[in-house]
Amino acid sequence: MEYSYLSRFLQDKLSKAEALEQLKFKTHQFAKKQIAWWRKDPDINYVKDYPQAKSLVSDFLSS
Fold first, then answer.
1. How far, in Å, are 35, 45, 58 from residue 24 at the CA level?
2. Which InterPro entries did the record assign (predicted)?
3. Radius of gyration of the chain, Cα coordinates, nearest whole angstrom
4. Residue 22 near residue 5 (C-beta atoms within 8 A)
5. Buried b vs exposed e over 6-45: b needs ≥16 C-beta within 10 Å?
6. How far apart, in whole angstroms, are the C-alpha atoms of residue 13 and residue 49?
7. pLDDT higher than 90, residue 44
8. What confidence score (pLDDT) does residue 1 get?
């Protein structure tokens, strides 16, 4: 993803500010897509804090 912005910047097709702005935007979009994709997986347990994580790991290891 970032290579295209670096390439266009090096070819003077984008300013540094434009390249960084577009890269930030695309990275944010990509992260949102990843989060949406992972949320669809019912086997993933999202934890809120350390005690919950510790409990889940303990339960898993004892089974």
1. 17, 28, 39
2. P-loop_NTPase
3. 20
4. yes
5. eeebeeeebeeeebeebbeeeeeeeeeeeeeeeeeeeeee
6. 45
7. no
8. 66
